[in-house]
Specification:
The chain is of the alpha/beta class. The chain contains 14 helices and 22 strands. The chain folds into three domains: 83 residues, Udp-n-acetylmuramoylalanyl-d-glutamate--2,6- Diaminopimelate Ligase, Chain: A, domain 1 (3-Layer(aba) Sandwich), CATH 3.40.1390; 201 residues, 3-Layer(aba) Sandwich (UDP-N-acetylmuramoyl-L-alanine:D-glutamate ligase), CATH 3.40.1190.10; 131 residues, Mur ligase, C-terminal domain (Protein-Tyrosine Phosphatase, Chain A, Alpha-Beta Complex), CATH 3.90.190.20. It is globular and about 75 Å long. The two termini are 44 Å apart.
Length: 442
């Protein structure tokens, strides 16, 4: 938890305290009265279906030291900072606090692998010093400033995930963070419904690299089709990575989950070429920040898989791999390719849900995904939900369509047995993890 002086908060917000200045220091910020702590600054946010101002009284009853509220809200009994818009006010506080940091902030964006890379980089950097990181998916216009305001200013490193749904978001968030290191992961047709083309998505992601100052560094995949475009707009020094190609940091895959970089072998805890690329980025950042290979390897061993990202469990002798946190055309192919290559004593089943936010390309992308899946050595495929109706597999002997997760679980109970493996993959809104819940219940 971070401590703030009331005077500096007022300065950052550009306003004066009403109802007197809070006594002592303010201990962190919170937007949620369900988890607020005594001494916090309560941030009263407004959304389409809620108004945080309705809970200001509850926040003070639970020990809040002060509140950030909108100008049109009147409160007369406790210290408040009144601002035109509380989201903008929250961002102003984060912008002001950013100037106090003495550590190195790292920004991560891309269409695929943002969270995994963020976690891997944080694990690597934590081996060398105190490291702060984005919790969960706090990567938007509210989550990023909240994460920034929770970073102790004395941290040696901070690793921040930056996401987007619409044009203009990456540049604004990166401008708020002002990263010293920028990392771009793979780019594909995620959130396509808000963009006219894949190139527009790539240019939006590139805004992160453009916000890194000349004194910083940007890490890019030399194998990406967007490498030249992104590099041409960078003021910072560019560091390149590649699996097997010519780059500043080239990685070679070895059997047993080993990635060799600069003659040193690193164990990568998750399978698949895409995971090797993610780890290669973390290794390259570590080396650029002068962390020794042995420390980096130790950091990677501490990496914990985020929930619902290749999360393995066993139920009745059947191996379930839950990767249903999110999906897009690139991540779908990467996970299905990796799954189909796994050594399994029994049969391999893929349970596939829809990929959301693809706009006018949705039907085409699902149809092409079906063509891709049809060539994989899978024993069974179950497509779940409306979006997945365009996935067709004529070569898969056991192919099923189910309207709901409960129906898919019933198929798996009837068709699978000990030694089999099941992959679950879909966009977050499909809630495909419910298949496991229904499977357990019956």
């Amino acid at each position: 938890m971070c401590d703030f002086r009331p005077g500096e908060l007022a300065q950052w917000a550009g306003r004066l305290w009403k109802n007197g200045m809070p006594e002592g220091v303010i201990k962190g910020v919170s937007k949620d009265t369900r988890t607020i702590k005594p001494g916090n600054l309560y941030i009263a946010l407004r959304g389409d279906h809620f108004d945080g101002h309705d809970f200001v009284g509850e926040a003070f009853a639970k020990g809040a030291a002060a509140a950030l509220v909108a100008d049109d809200f009147q409160w007369k009994t406790h210290p408040v900072l009144s601002v035109t818009d509380t989201v903008r006010g929250l961002q102003d506080l984060a912008k002001g606090y950013r100037k106090k940091w003495i550590g190195t902030p790292v920004g991560v964006t891309g269409s695929v692998g943002k969270t995994t890379v963020k976690e891997m980089v944080a694990s690597v950097l934590a081996s060398a010093g105190r490291t702060h990181k984005t919790a969960g998916n706090y990567n938007n216009h509210i989550g990023l400033p909240l994460t920034m305001l929770s970073m102790p200013h004395s941290c040696r490193y901070g690793v921040f995930e930056i996401g987007m749904n619409h044009p203009g978001e990456i540049g604004a968030l990166a401008g708020l963070l002002k990263p010293q290191v920028g990392i771009l992961t793979d780019i594909c047709n995620a959130h396509r419904e808000s963009f006219a083309s894949l190139e527009e998505i790539a240019r939006e992601k590139a805004k992160l690299a453009e916000q890194v100052p000349a004194s910083g560094l940007v890490l890019l995949d030399r194998d990406s089709e967007w490498f030249g475009m992104i590099r041409s707009n960078c003021a910072a020094r560019v560091i390149t990575v590649s699996l097997g190609g010519d780059a500043d940091y080239s990685g070679q895959a070895k059997p047993g989950g080993i990635l060799c970089v600069e003659g040193f072998d690193y164990f990568i805890p998750l399978p698949g070429e895409h995971m090797l690329r993610n780890a290669l980025r973390a290794i390259a950042v570590g080396r650029e920040l002068e962390i020794e290979p042995e420390q980096i390897a130790a950091g990677l061993r501490q990496f914990e898989v985020p929930p619902m990202r290749w999360q393995e469990s066993e139920i009745g002798g059947i191996r379930f791999i839950n990767d249903a946190y999110n999906a897009n055309p690139l991540s779908m192919r990467a996970n299905l390719r990796t799954f189909s290559a796994l050594p399994v004593s029994g049969a391999k089943w893929a349970v596939i849900g829809g990929m959301r936010e693809l706009g006018e390309t949705a039907e085409k992308e699902h149809r092409e995904l079906g063509e891709f899946v049809d060539q994989l050595p899978l024993d069974g495929v179950i497509c779940v939900g409306t979006l997945a109706e365009n996935i067709r597999c004529g070569n898969i002997a056991q192919f099923y369509r189910c309207a709901r997760a409960e129906e898919a679980a019933a198929v798996l109970r009837a068709k699978t047995g000990e030694g089999d493996a099941v992959l679950l993959k879909a966009s977050r809104g499909e809630k495909l993890e419910d298949v496991i819940t229904f499977f357990k219940e019956n």
